[in-house]
Sequence to fold (293 residues):
Amino acid sequence: MERKVTSLSWQTDLIKQESSANIGDDILLFDKFSSVNAFIFNYPFKFDMLFIVVCTKGKGSGTIGFRPYDLTAPFLIVVRPNEILHYEYLSEDFAGYCLVLSNRFAPELLPFIDKQAALAAAISENPCAQLDLESMSFVKKFFLILKKIMEKTDNPYRLEMVKHLTMLVFYMSYPFFQKRIDATKQTRQGLLIKQFTDLVRENYRHERETAFYADKLNLTSKYLSQVIKSTTGKSASDWIDNFVILEAKALLKSTNMTIQQISDDLNFPSQSFFGKYFKRIVGVSPKMYRERD
Fold:
């Protein structure tokens, strides 16, 4: 019988943190979110929830769904279900707000986002928004109102109000999501890197050779490698490996999949081959990585 793959519980760690308001385990609001809270996910983590963080102070960098970010407050990030969040750096003074919607409630909200094609595409392509001070002031008011609504336990429409208020923040933030996307397309090299990373994002489970991506882009492997290396500081093969390893790390830490299942999921010829590949890049075996804190 095929083993059911499940995500490991995120509530256990988050509920240990002191939330400022909640609606059961489905919606958690943190109005004093700090680097201490954030580092409960101190490894690549595949979420089964909708995770919204607004940074009001400090800096942060990492990846969301394989898309890198390096931002200074004020900014907003959105992690949709089944995407991987990896904090690489948070400044000690990092502070802000966090809204967590469980996989029981997120499906109530996501169709609203997906119906707005431009908004859905912007968040999917770039889940980070560098806000301005006026927008930050609006977001702060949003969290204050949201907290008051969540505390009104006698209101049967709390969930509906949370849904529509959250959509309001997405609508307000849309120009900032789109602005960051447009900025990456301003140079020929930037456009090529985007095309390359989009292709890797779509194919890394099956294709790990630079030649495959060069052929898709109608370029020679040598030229593609030179452009990627000179522009990003990492070779094309390093980018491909990073996608594969980030997915492997997230599956090891945030699901109950066996190492064999992860090897199969990533289309390695054998668990042994996967283990050697993982250890060559990470420095430890998949088993050791899963077991360490």
User: Anything to note?
Assistant: The longest strand covers residues 27-34. The CA atoms of residues 82 and 129 lie 20 Å apart.
